[in-house]
Design goal:
Helix content: 25-40%
Number of helices: 6
Largest sheet: 7 strands, mixed
Number of strands: 9
Length: 176
């Protein structure tokens, strides 16, 4: 009886931790991350704090139709995003090798980040446990490390242009 009560309490705490991660909102501190990019570098959110805004655009799976459209849109509209003082990334919980092959195939000019353990996806609340993949959500993080906006209704075909427009709306500084 005590063992079953202990197990139930443990499960409740685990579920509560997962749900609390899913409740990130504007104004919250963004969870720090340390993820490998398709360029071989490791990117940490803390490296940008006090320096520039960050866009972290999660997608479900590399080399699928929707993700291909989204990442291509980021590539095609990269110049619009680079007008702003921002570091921008797409990310998935695919392994680095898969994201690297995907990035090479598309010829993207920005890093795609890999979270194969899904720990960062879980911290951001984007992990869909049934599909074992990230939801297609984009986080806009200010230079102060706080979440400025969360887009949960991403349009894959126009996401790059949409991100650039949102950076302007949010008042992210343009490069000098």
């Amino acid at each position: 009886m005590k063992l079953s009560s202990l197990l139930v309490c443990s499960m409740i705490l685990t579920i509560a931790n997962i749900l609390s991660a899913a409740e990130l909102k504007v104004g919250d501190n963004a969870p720090d991350f340390s993820l490998v990019g398709t360029d071989g570098k490791t990117y940490k959110l803390s490296d940008f704090k006090g320096k520039k805004a960050v866009v972290l655009a999660w997608f479900p799976r590399a080399d699928t139709p929707g993700c291909t459209k989204e990442c291509t849109s980021f590539k095609n509209d990269g110049p619009k995003m680079r007008d702003y003082d921002v570091a921008y990334f797409t990310a998935s919980n695919d392994p680095p090798e898969k994201n690297k092959a995907f990035a090479d195939k598309l010829g993207v000019d920005y890093p795609i980040l890999s979270d194969p353990s899904s720990s960062v996806a879980t911290a951001y609340g984007v992990l869909n446990p049934e599909r074992k993949a990230a939801n297609r959500w984009t986080f806009y993080i200010g230079a102060d490390g706080k979440i400025l906006y969360i887009d949960k209704t991403v349009k894959t075909d126009s996401h790059g242009a949409d991100v650039a427009a949102k950076l302007g709306e949010l008042g992210v500084a343009k490069k000098k």
